[in-house]
Amino acid sequence: MTTALCPGSFDPPTSGHIDVIDRALSLFDRVIVAVIDNPSKDAMFTAEERVALWSEIYGDRVDVTRFSGLIVDHVTEQGADTVVKGLRTVEDYEYELQMAQMNRHLSGMETVFLPTKPELAYISSSLVKEIAKLGGSVGGLVPDVVEKALKEKLS
Question: Is 125 a catalytic residue?
Fold first, then answer.
């Protein structure tokens, strides 16, 4: 059984994230969405809220965990075989490649890159938050449950 771990801050989960997770589900037997709990980041949603959003989006189709610290440690704790990272831009690739090489150096862990569909590549969590804060529509950029959570958070 192959297990993929998909880590990220996911603040909030977007349609681009969903694309990557859906494709990981078609490639691996088990998929874990791992929400990074980084207290130094100024997140809109708490780690608990982000975990709850993922659980609502996927139900029991994925496992959802929360972690802080080194990803290689969490991969080992979860019994995962590989990390899956989505790529939108060349800048994403350059950053993620360096991280993948370091993780492989530290633990032998493999990373699989999945390029986001071109029609979703412009979507980022930071842009979604900015649009929502300014009263714009985020329909189609995020799952309905996330759109509702953004409206509640900003009201």
Answer: yes
